[in-house]
């Protein structure tokens, strides 16, 4: 980490303070716009928005616990080509990690984007976010401060006191901050009635801090302690989740049962930020089977599960994206039948990334595993090359 600055909370509101910071970003002549979650006029709807008018920042809200989509692919699209200035992208840690993976896959660029990460306590999935709104937690922008304080004290997180719990992906996320962020908005361990911190992570982040003219401060030990506490708690949750998932999927029959509700809608593929193919093989003629083929397969066992190819589809997806999965959970969030696809995809990704000693989205300079050949890799399989 580089320079740390302390920002005094404006009128007791962390959100207003962050919005004021965004206003300073837009006033910087090098900044073309800000990509940030924003409340829409429809009640409770928070969606990523590209803001160029400072007057629209009063609805900007990176604290709201709504996470309807991973914005990485949107940022990738915005950075593929020339920009008239720098784009400030305010993203969750998992979104930044997904964007970094897309850059490695030549789907986006880091050249004209400033990645800003907000310390992340977690978010609800779509269903639980609606349930939270129904408890009286109407998430207008001014309500986010109250939510943030409850999340910081643990009042919101796991399902407690009649309140819905955060998405399982968030509960199992061991990366509450983004290593590749240019600038961190530090909330962990802060007295949220008094101050938050800005922490530069790269020379680009250092540059905008200098232009903002903020005063340096010592990085809070409380923030590091909170990051460590959250990481340990979430890692324990993740490991327990992995054990449960392994027990439910450790045979072909169990795996078929686990995925039995799949209707081949492919929502998980569409929602996945690192599934980037222009044309998926599963929507081509390869899987446009003929009627006689279906009947032939049915006659082999007397019955054929319809639609077909669901198990093959998920196995192919696991093989395709396990090195790049960042565990954002949008696959489960998009599933109409509540299949816990996040759990099994995270399990496969963890095994793959551990085997390669790789952490998706952590380091923009580190090449993806399958892009690098190491002659002494996996000697237990190759037998060595001596």
TrEMBL record:
Residue span(s) of domain 4Fe-4S ferredoxin-type: 316-345
Alphabetized UniProt keyword annotations: Iron, Iron-sulfur, Metal-binding
Task: Tell me one Pfam family matched here.
Answer: Fer4
Q: Which GO terms describe its molecular function?
A: iron-sulfur cluster binding; metal ion binding
Q: Where does the source fall among the domains of life?
A: Bacteria
Query: Under what name is this protein listed?
Result: Formate dehydrogenase
């Amino acid at each position: 980490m580089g320079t740390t600055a302390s920002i005094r909370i404006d009128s007791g509101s962390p959100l207003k303070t962050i919005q004021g910071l965004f206003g300073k970003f837009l006033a910087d002549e090098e900044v073309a716009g800000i990509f940030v979650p924003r409340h829409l006029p429809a009640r409770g709807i928070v969606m990523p928005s590209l803001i160029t008018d400072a007057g629209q920042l009063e609805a900007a809200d990176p604290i709201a616990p709504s996470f309807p989509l991973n914005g990485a692919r949107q940022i990738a699209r915005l950075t593929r080509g020339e920009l008239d200035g720098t784009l400030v992208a305010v993203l969750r840690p998992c979104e930044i990690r997904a964007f970094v993976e897309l850059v490695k896959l030549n789907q986006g660029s880091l050249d004209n984007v400033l990645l800003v990460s907000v310390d992340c306590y977690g978010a609800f999935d779509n269903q639980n976010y609606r349930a939270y709104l129904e408890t009286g937690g109407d998430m207008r922008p001014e309500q986010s401060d109250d939510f943030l304080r409850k999340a910081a004290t643990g009042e919101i997180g796991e399902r407690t006191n009649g309140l819905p719990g955060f998405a399982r992906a968030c509960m199992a996320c061991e990366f509450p901050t983004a290593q590749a962020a240019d600038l961190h908005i530090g909330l962990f361990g802060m007295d949220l009635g008094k101050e938050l911190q800005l922490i530069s992570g790269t020379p680009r982040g250092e540059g905008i801090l200098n232009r903002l003219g903020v005063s340096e401060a010592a990085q809070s030990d409380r923030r590091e302690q909170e990051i460590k506490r959250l990481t340990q708690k979430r890692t324990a949750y993740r490991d327990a989740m992995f054990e449960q998932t392994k027990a439910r999927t450790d045979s072909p029959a169990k795996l078929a049962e686990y995925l039995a509700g799949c209707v081949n809608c492919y929502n998980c593929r569409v929602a996945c930020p690192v599934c980037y193919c222009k044309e998926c093989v599963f929507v081509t003629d390869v899987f446009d089977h003929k009627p006689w083929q279906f009947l032939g397969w049915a006659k082999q066992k007397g019955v054929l599960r319809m639609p077909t190819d669901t198990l093959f589809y998920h196995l192919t997806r696991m093989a395709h994206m396990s090195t790049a999965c960042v565990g954002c959970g949008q696959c489960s969030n998009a599933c109409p039948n509540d299949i816990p696809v996040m759990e099994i995809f995270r399990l496969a990704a963890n095994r793959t990334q551990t085997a390669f000693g790789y952490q998706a989205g952590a380091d923009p300079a580190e090449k993806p595993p399958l892009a690098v050949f190491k002659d002494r890799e996996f000697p237990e399989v190759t037998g060595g090359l001596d």
